[in-house]
Design brief:
3 domains, 15 helices, five-stranded parallel sheet
Amino acid sequence: MTDVPPLVLISGPEQILAERAASSTIALLRESDPESELVRLEAASYESGELQLHAGPSLFGGSKIVLVRDLDEAREELIADVVDVVAAGLDGATLIVQHKGGVRGKKALDALKQNGARVIDAPAIKSDRDKSAFVTHEFRSAGRKIAPDAVRALLEAVGKDLRELASACKQLVDDTEGMITADVVQRYHGGKVEATGFRVADAAIGGNLPEALRLARHALASGLDPVPIVAVLASQLRQIARVATAGRGGSGQLAKQLGMAPWQVDRARRDAKGWDGERLGRAIQAVAAADFDVKGGGRDPVYALERAIMTIAAERNG
């Protein structure tokens, strides 16, 4: 017998987490009844009465699993049917409802909760700290370890989209052995043009103008737009300013306070060496001007990017 109750509510906007919660719940149910029938109902195409039809007892016996997706986008017919089915109770069926958030469908949500639904959260994962924790958890769940600098390298190389991060983690788990290091991540993902923006920022903020310009020009030749490079420059400089003014404390403590990952605090502290408040302020202003120019305010986005890089390097070198 499974311990999954007849009603399950998966609540939250992070779709990859919601999909995993639904899949794991269905897998648990099928452990006790491998032949259980799965019915998927989409809010966008729902017709009145469908839920009652599928949630009722099967003519051939056996259990049913009814998955209702995107209740937050439902019309009144689906909301009313969920309320009615929950009130009537389920016989030999499990109802799983996914809701991304918001007030739409509140009557159905209240009915599910009041009738003992198991609530599984799928919260938004937005901050770099949360994304770092997600990557670490992906490897831990697979029985593998990843070094902190490798987490940073993966986020920089793949980007912040959770589904792409999960896919990249799976590839590394499947294709490698032992500890995941930054070198391993670089070997598999370092060639992506997205990663170059961070290398440009590292070089410029460190005062290495020739390397920063070389990397920027290579990125542009590879097809990367100036906009994300400027965005990385701005993000790195802001992180330095935030960490420099946050006071003392351990990396973990400051990371929690600032909504950053511990490795970002360590990097910002390292990068802050050689900077003072006035020169950092001028560098941030130069990047803000470049951001305006590359988004259509200037005539030449490439020139705007290179001018910002030159200003940052010059300010770093005093």
